[in-house]
Amino acid sequence: MQEVLLEDMGLIDYQAAWDYQEELLQKNILAKAAARAVEAGSPGGVDLLVPETVNHLLLLEHPPVYTLGKSGHEENILISQDKMQQQGIQYFRTNRGGDITFHGPGQLVGYPVLDLEKFYTDIGRYLRNLEEVIIRTLAVWGLRGDRSPGETGVWLDPQVKGKERKICAMGVRCSRWITMHGFAFNVNTDLSYFDNIIPCGIQNKQVTSLQKELGGQPVSMDRVKEEIKKAFEEVFSARLQVA
What we know:
There is one protein chain. The protein is of the alpha/beta class. The chain has one domain (2-242): BirA Bifunctional Protein, domain 2 (2-Layer Sandwich), CATH 3.30.930. 29% of the residues lie in helices and 30% in strands. It has helices at residues 14-39, 81-86, 123-140, 210-213, 221-236; strands at residues 2-11, 55-61, 65-68, 90-93, 100-103, 107-113, 146-148, 151-156, 165-175, 178-186, 206-207, 238-242. Strands 1, 2, 6, 7, 8, 9, 10, 11 and 12 form a nine-stranded mixed β-sheet that branches. A three-stranded mixed β-sheet has the order 4-3-5. A hairpin with a 2-residue loop joins strand 9 (165-175) and strand 10. The radius of gyration is 19 Å and the shape is globular. The model has no long low-confidence stretch (mean pLDDT 93).
């Protein structure tokens, strides 16, 4: 069972969270490089401690921001940058996978910074497991989350034409088997922000939230976090420790 350090960062600017993830990723990459050097043999036969990578799970919310993945298309952005500024919305091109999405208050964002060599070296399996965390969380509220073939993320009724609605978007980056970025789960999200984009570059499909699916009553974000933590530990065979 792998230990994962948990940080609940509250509401934090997108750039600050991105920088922090990059810092954690680079520390882990350096630890791996140092470990390889030790394994290759230390000079003079001196015994050295093998550096360990550290797994993290960051839970947070962002102020309103649109982010475009590295393979995304700007034509999926239906609002000008001037209007974004007028409405107080930030915009970033990122180094994650996926296309355009929105982050904002009421959306629970999870950024796992994991050394997959301690779990399994399979990005597809990793993404399916992230989806499974959200699927198990939705089940607590009596909702059946599902996968849509060829479309990463978690959906409701993905097989029912005209009723498909996405409740959680995902996009990750992996370097030397260290992950960053992750999932964006619409809990009490203001869905009107999605009207300015073609979410994830997918035409003619809806976006929804836990609040909307439960009849419009706000959902306790603290409760959602607790359920996410339980599901994450189960799915990843991990033990979360507060950092």
